[in-house]
Design goal:
single chain; 216 residues; alpha+beta; six-stranded antiparallel beta sheet; 8 helices
Length: 216
């Protein structure tokens, strides 16, 4: 009886917990975007014009602001304006560090012409014989390659169940195993503590052969 009771409770939790978290996150995002309505002058806001609030209007305003900003700042004059604005921010110590870091990460993630986090890898870490899932972020700086005498790549090893935290490693390119696995499936594997595995097994995987010159 207790086993059946436990089964029913777990089944119910598996339905309601993900649904509740999803609703909470979406509602939080909608609420935050709806607050952009304060960009309108008080006399132009719905409660002033119509006597009641219009849910979702802030989302429409946010989308319009993002689109218009991108439209005007992609031309030559807009680029000069961005450069002047960033020069001002670059002179403020604390703001400079935060802004530059966030911009660099955002540009890397949103850019359509790079391969960031498009490659799922396995590496032997923290010791030989134990494999860890990671993502290739970029090629390592040339100075690192020269110092080690090896061709390195930069990988990000996520923590579980929160893949937004982790650490970076510089791994010889010939010591990684490339997996034919979607990034989304790999993230599900990390976030579920390994419980949720990809529906399809990786089609192919290969380990780059060791470069004898580097080893000797």
């Amino acid at each position: 009886m207790f086993a059946k009771l436990r089964k029913y409770i777990i089944t119910g939790l598996l339905i309601w917990v993900p649904l509740g978290i999803t609703i909470f996150v979406i509602r939080l995002l909608v609420t935050l975007m709806d607050r952009t309505i304060v960009l309108l002058p008080p006399g132009w806001r719905p409660e002033a014009l119509f006597g009641f609030n219009i849910p979702g209007l802030g989302i429409v305003i946010s989308a319009m602001v993002i689109f218009i900003t991108g439209f005007f700042l992609t031309n030559f004059a807009g680029k000069r304006l961005i450069q002047a604005w960033e020069n001002i921010l670059d002179r403020i110590p604390l703001v400079r560090s935060i802004y530059s870091s966030v911009k660099q990460v955002t540009s890397t993630i949103l850019s359509s012409d790079n391969n960031t986090f498009n490659e799922v890898l396995l590496i032997e870490y923290p010791r030989k014989g134990i494999w860890t899932l990671c993502f290739k972020t970029s090629d390592s700086p040339q100075s690192f390659n020269e110092a080690t005498g090896k061709e390195l790549i930069t990988v990000f090893v996520p923590t579980t169940p929160n893949p937004t935290s982790g650490f970076i490693l510089f791994i010889p390119e010939n010591e990684v195993m490339k997996m034919d696995l979607d990034v989304e499936d790999a993230l599900k594997l990390v976030m579920s503590l390994g419980v949720v595995t990809p529906e399809n097994s990786p089609k192919t995987s290969h380990k780059i052969e060791h470069n004898s010159k580097l080893e000797h």
